[in-house]
Write a structure and sequence with these properties.
With about 375 residues, the protein is an alpha/beta fold. It is built from 15 helices and 12 strands. The strands form 3 sheets. It has a 7-stranded mixed beta sheet, with helices on both faces. Strands 9-12-11 form a 3-stranded antiparallel beta sheet.
């Protein structure tokens, strides 16, 4: 059999998490919390299950949840989205990325990808017979070089995928970034896929600039969100897609035959929890404290912090003061010899570009972060 993805192996997240288990390392690699989710959320799920809400939900998602989301979008982004025709609940945001690409791409289409990029983007493009056109973000802050993006556009450009707050770099797009994107794609047929799963993790008083805030962009975008990232429940695999009706019709054509629906009691629970906006609006402060603690712990260690994370729950660090290994070798060595697992940033680049950086996840209990720092004190004696 001929593989559709001949260049693809096991994801770096699985590789590093497996290595962490094998060597009993503290896992700061994969992006999942190790602290409990909201007890209220657990209670609401239990209530829904006991009340008998255990069968298929409607294909687009529970109306109650879609209405809560429409109200949230209008309040935060001043955008009126129809909950019936423009919001769809999905089994996770990664699933939604696949459905979005499958809905819009034809063979030989091109998609502009800003790298480093979340590792599911390019395989999903290739699965649909399209071509990824990679544009490097600018080291060391990983801002967008808009001239290079402009040069990457061709008559075959069908879409451009963006991610803010950005995984793995922690860069947060500015209003100027959005205006540049709007100007570049105005009067074209280019569709924007906007991965905004970390929308509520913007740090140091930064504002999340959703494409939904910009009418021109909103009218040609599929926007992807994650409940798992927001409510510390990554294993639930539940997210949603927001798009104008003409794009959502195509998205739902794929969704109805791939996943069809999403966990029913969890949708009821999320709808009830999100009636209180403080459940998500307090997240920036929560994660700022974790980032600042982690940076304080790293300050005594031989890592280089080129830029504090602006958003998401990831922090990049350089290790050139420790050794000259490539980042994949260094991440493996750090796991095996020091007992702390991270992610090498080159894994997010199609061409393997290596800026000698590793990604730490700081969405962990304080004692986990302190324990990891204590183990890494061995680096001071090398």
């Amino acid at each position: 059999m001929q593989s559709k993805l001949p260049q693809v192996g096991t994801t770096i997240f699985t590789v590093m998490s497996n290595l962490a288990r094998e060597y009993d390392a503290i896992n700061l690699s994969q992006g999942f919390p190790d602290y409990p989710i909201s007890s209220k959320l657990i209670s609401y799920v239990n209530e829904a299950m006991l009340a008998g809400f255990n069968q298929y939900a409607p294909m687009p998602g529970l109306p109650e949840l879609r209405t809560v989301l429409a109200n949230k979008i209008e309040r935060l982004y001043q955008a009126k989205m129809n909950p019936d025709s423009e919001i769809t609940i999905t089994p996770g945001a990664t699933y939604a990325i696949y459905c979005a690409f499958t809905a819009i791409l034809q063979p030989c289409d091109e998609v502009i990808v800003l790298e480093p990029a979340y590792d599911s983007y390019i395989p999903n493009i290739h699965l649909n017979g399209a071509k990824a056109i990679c544009v490097p973000l600018q080291y060391p802050d990983y801002s967008v070089n808009w001239q290079k993006v402009k040069e990457a556009i061709s008559p075959n450009t069908k879409a451009l995928i963006i991610n803010t707050p950005h995984n793995p770099t922690g860069y947060v797009w500015t209003a100027n970034d959005m205006k540049q994107l709007d100007a570049l794609t105005a009067n074209t047929d280019i569709i924007i896929l906007s991965d905004e799963v970390y929308e509520h993790i913007t740090l140091d008083e930064r504002t999340h600039e959703s494409v939904l805030k910009y009418e021109g962009l909103r009218n040609r975008s599929l926007v992807l969100f994650s409940f798992g990232k927001v409510f510390h429940a990554t294993g639930w695999k539940i997210g949603y897609c927001v798009a104008p009706e003409r794009l959502m019709k195509e998205f739902r054509k794929v969704h109805q035959f791939v996943g069809f629906t999403t966990n029913t009691p969890m949708q009821y629970a999320l709808a009830k929890l999100m009636e209180d906006e403080n459940e998500y609006l307090q997240l920036p402060h929560f994660f700022e404290k974790k980032r600042d603690l982690f940076l304080e712990l790293l300050s005594d260690l031989p890592f280089t912090i080129h830029q504090k994370s602006q958003g998401s729950y990831f922090q990049l660090a350089g290790y050139e003061k420790i050794n000259k290994m490539g980042d994949k070798d260094f991440a493996t060595w750090l796991t095996k010899e020091i007992g702390v697992a991270t992610i090498p940033v080159s894994a997010f680049n199609q061409d393997g570009r290596d800026d000698k950086l590793i990604r730490f996840c700081f969405a962990k209990m304080d004692r986990t972060l302190i324990g990891a720092a204590d183990r890494m004190k061995k680096l001071l004696t090398l």
